[in-house]
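Example 3.2
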Amino acid sequence: MMKLLHALVLLALCRSAAGSIEGMKRLYSDLFGNYSTKIRPVYNQSQNVDVHSSFNLVAITEVDQVRQILHSNVMMNLTWQDAFLTWNPQDYNGIKSIHPPLTDIWRPKLIVPVSVEDRDVFKDETSSITVYSDGRVTWFPGANFATDCKLDLTLFPFDVQTCQFRFLPVSYNSNELKMVSSLVSANTQSSTENGEWILTASRAYTTERTFVDSTFSFLYVDIDLERRPMFFVLNVILPVVVLSFLNIFVFSLPCDCGEKVSYAITCLLSLTVLMSIVSGLLPSSDNIPMVTVYLTCLLGISVLSVVATILIVMKDPAKANNKDQQSPLFVIPRFCSLPFPGSRRKVMDEVQLDSKTSGSAGNGNPTGKVPEVQSSSGYCVTADSLCMVIFTALWIAVSVGFLVQITN
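Structure, written as tokens:
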């Protein structure tokens, strides 16, 4: 008894499948017997076809800053009404939807005018298309885009860029085909995060533009990309700032140590290498990044410090007279100035100082050392002390100015 029941069920399924197949063949024959892909799917050809679209951003692959190109993976959801593809499901064994080949159905051919490669990006014949019994057609084309994106790198690496996608239906003006945005923004729910950029906002809208004597309907999608600055700050800006700050301490080294000039030149060469790395990351444009100006100023400070160090070593009178300390440039009275880094001495005439030194050495002072003079009437300013103060103030002014501009 059970075997008979199973046989009856199997027979019913086979008849149902055969009926569905026969209904599908009859449906395709009735729909596509006199169907033409060259005719817009409306009976009244004076009416336009509305193509509802939604932009799905799958991933931001790369932002080429030198060539100013945005590489992305995009899926589109296009829906329109085909008046020639309607049927009653009850007449065809309850079939409510079909999936015809792309070449057998009319489709709006879209191009991307801002593409730097092939503008006809939706050439994949394997994309899904579905036709419903009420004539509604949904198409899900996808492609990898390489679009032009004008970058404003003034605030690099703390910049926010806006890139735009444009979609134009070819061969049909706005009276024949109109693009309608189903969403007010791009669909990014299933998008993959990029390691360098964050998608902060997006906008989707349609507009009409006139070329020569024809008006076309455009679909625009704008996306705002905010850069993740920590990689560039930690690997480029911070090392340059630290090296430029260390370069100032060259003036704390004595002239007779033999490493004063080599220390300054080493810091200069390190800054030059890092500047070459930065120049390779940035494009040639009219908008000069503020970070480039800042790093160039630090490089200029380093160059000036090397020149000042060489002059100090060449003109050092202590080296010529075999003295241990630099001769003072001038003395600032203590009551009208802050203490300068340098040797503290008594304000007196150099001739009197030399006579006392020679007198004390001849009166039982076999070592020839100068007795310590207890006086606090002034501070002696040497060339190293003065340069260290000047370059420190200059470094602070440039760094604070850069931070203020970036913040504003």
